[in-house]
Amino acid sequence: MRKHSPASLIVTTGVDGRVGRLLTQELTQRTSPANVRLCTPRDPATLTNERARGFQIAHADYNDPASLDTAFAGAGTVLITSSDGTNDVRIHQHRCAIDAAKKANVGRVVYMSFTSPSASSLCNLNHVHADSEAYLLASGLTTTILRDNQFAENLDLMLERSRGTNQLVLPGAHGKVAYITRDDAAAAIAGALTQTGHDNKTYELTGPEAVDLFDIAAALSIARGAMVTASEATLEAFGPVLADFGLPPYIVEAMLSMYMAAAAGEYTLVSADAAMLAGRPIESMRAYVAQFA
User: What is residue 44's DSSP assignment?
Assistant: First the structure.
């Protein structure tokens, strides 16, 4: 098996997403773009600016094994990010990516997972990651597993709308969650990709504290100088709200299940792993909400 080193080729999937774009920025500060191959399932021409900055660019579609073979060729480290779709589709796609990494004899796979990956989790997204983690570990590849907690930005729309109402309403409002910002997650991922010493380890990427909706309302009240209240919504009432945003049914189902998992305490774990990998402090949710004052 090829030995990983900081100078070896890093291949990243998921560069089209919001975290992926932030990760690309982070990597420019931590390694030479010439050492990084950015992969997109779309037309590589969409990454013209990144190519001009010195990054290698490749097409990589989890549904196209040949594209993965080309994209992963010569890689010291491959980042496999979560795909999109129903659970059966995502499980199949993740397995295809892992198979391609094994076929390419990559030095290490960094897999983006999610907090509490278990087949018994109340959040159905975690069922995918439970399967993918197990499949990856059974592959014999050298691995680094990064389990993101919920992103702080998931609450942006609700926080923004509260400017007019001073009310926060969400299912699972009493559930504590160790939210992490996308900026901080990207910095931690970049650290895991560019540093040595992370072989066959699993890290929890969380913020520095776990908070519920009532904690967030209290922090927002201080920042806003006005009383902000929090209350519990029923899943039955909140499903149509999510559907009104134009989300497909499987996403609505996944989000509702995530609220259930939060209420059950699945996302309370707080870890210093993200700060260690990022090499800097991680923003708290209480500090994050101040921008919505």
Answer: G
